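Figure S4 source data
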Amino acid sequence: QVQLVESGGGLVQPGGSLRLSCAASGSIFSMNAMGWYRQAPGKQRELVASVSRGGSTNYAASVEGRFTISRDNAKITVYLQMNSLKPEDTAVYYCYCNAVTGFSSGIYWGQGTQVTVSS
């Protein structure tokens, strides 16, 4: 099994910054893509950003230029640097990964961390 532990959420004023971290642990043979989804109240969960094992990144149009995703393969950790935050970024942010364990691969999720952007 794979466990994902997130940290870094909280309350921030519009225009502020936060950095989310997500550390993976468990019986991991190799780690493929890692990334972040978010879900705002009354809305569907949406992809925020993802990063491949090789470092290729993908962003939602709504966060392009403001958010930066990165990963540390040695620490099996993914980060999301969020700048110029807007009230519409308020949501629960979920880390995910595509991990290979033993002879199978699967998608694993973190427990979620609340990000609130408000004055």
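Figure S5 source data
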Amino acid sequence: QVQLVESGGGLVQAGGSLRLSCAASGTIFRVNTMGWYRQTPGKQRELVATITSGASTNYADSVKGRFTISRDNAKNTVFLQMNSLKPEDTAVYYCNIKFQLGGNYWGQGTQVTVSS
């Protein structure tokens, strides 16, 4: 079993910054990607950013140049540095981990609210 614990969400003014963290524990073996997704009420969960074990990254167009994903493989932790936040970034942010041999796990979510 795998557990993901997120932290770092909160309320920030537009233009501000937040840093999300997600620590994975349990049976961690052959990780493919770790990443962040977000969801607002009535909408589907959408990709924000992912990073492979080899540090290749992928970003949603809406966050490119503002958000940076990074990863500490030794600690099975993924980070999301969010700068120049906009009100439209307001959402529940979910951590995700995918394994090479299958398996896909989600964190409980952390609320990010950006006020205008």
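The longest strand covers residues 18-26. The CA atoms of residues 30 and 98 lie 9 Å apart.
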